[in-house]
Input
Amino acid sequence: MTSRLDRLVQQLDDASDDLSYDARAELIGIGSDAIPAIIEGFPSLDGFGQLTAIEVFEEVGDPLCGPALIGLLNSDNTTVREWAASALATLRIDGATVPLRRAHRACLQAATPPDWSEPVRIRWALAELGARTPVVPPLTARLRATVSADAPGWPSAHFAEVIDDLANHAQVILYSMFWRVEAGGTYYVSHTTPDWGLDWAMDWPRLVEEARTCTLLEAAEAPVGDDIFVDPVWIDRNDLDPEMW
Output
């Protein structure tokens, strides 16, 4: 069994001829018994193999993988760090909060733009684990979709109201995603967005107003419908304060 597991772990690196996908499926089928072998084989895997291993960890759901995921927060691969952060939150790994705080502080010290995927996922993970409380103004909270558990975010018809409410409470909107909910499924909706980006050298009040202006322009062209929902991502000034982490 050990040699078979070792072979499957090494195949996680091989994307040719679906070998990696097949190994992933087989390891998931083996379940918790495969986790020690994956952990042991981690040092020999490249970024692709490690990302696939993280998928196995999430599917199996065994907390034994916690220390390995925490260790991946120090990876040289940005995507590996991002996926590890998400998995730590999804699996509710004990002891993950402090390493995630360090990872967020490392992003701040490296001046990683706050709207890049790594800091976004780390902040999400901290919120999921109860270590970060996003600011949700009362109106924004009331407008959130409640029609279905499958409805992500807010009804698109209320997007402009949400934008103004967040800006009025000194929140900076980073970007937004749109989703269509139909026939029991949730589907990403692409749309044309104005070409804009925030200058993080600006002071916070100017960032708030710049984000408000640009996002309202986006809202004017955004898809609208009873089955369309918008999921904006925003941050508070404290999210960029290293002392908070």
In short: The beta strands are 154-155, 172-182, 185-189, 228-235. The mean pLDDT is 92. Residues 138-239 form a domain with the Ribulose 1,5 Bisphosphate Carboxylase/Oxygenase fold (CATH 3.30.190). The longest strand covers residues 172-182.
